[in-house]
Amino acid sequence: MRYVVVMMLALALSAGAETRKQLFNGKDMTGWEFSGRASGSKGFAVKDGLLDTGGGKGLLWYTREKLGNVNLRVVYRMSNSKGNSGVFIRIPEPPKSEDDAIHKGIEVQIDDNDNDWHCTGTLYSWTKALARPSKPAGQWNTLDIALDGLRTIVHVNGVLVTDYDGVSPVPEKKYPYEPQRGPRPESGYIGLQNHDERSVISFREISVSLLAKGRPGKAAKPE
Description:
The protein is mainly β. About 10% of the residues lie in helices and about 35% in strands. It has two helices and 13 strands, in the order αβββββββαββββββ.
């Protein structure tokens, strides 16, 4: 029996099957830490195997390692059409606040109510969406974020939305809530934004896999 299992694993690897590491265990927030503006607020809660946003604006960040040269997958659902959140990447040092993540890292937007520079799958205010394939509130969406050196590639539900090389000029900052411009590192900490209480954002998967050689940004099949 053991020989059969080993052979099956070898065949899967040889066929290029994806091996994913789960960053959220579906039970609690082990490995995560909340940095918020509301004193004592957890900002997030785990319920029925899902990680839900809650009270207290701030950032839930993964403490165990910096991530680079990986495909980060985030599967989320909004409770209503007013949902607003983001996935932060390339944060160079442990963030003391949400502002640290905003101005030192990059936000991959989760909110499809704004224009093409501030919608789901864009690097918030840095890149213009190539498509807008997000599903409406109540349905699950899959974000695949490839960190390929300085390059960032984002697929939403299997559709390419962003492909930014990490060095090309971006538009100047227009609004005070937009991030400071400047270089970002190849690898960094990641985090999830708790923006407000108008909608609950539920996350059922946060995982990473190594980038397939020669195939950066391999996207998940639409659900």
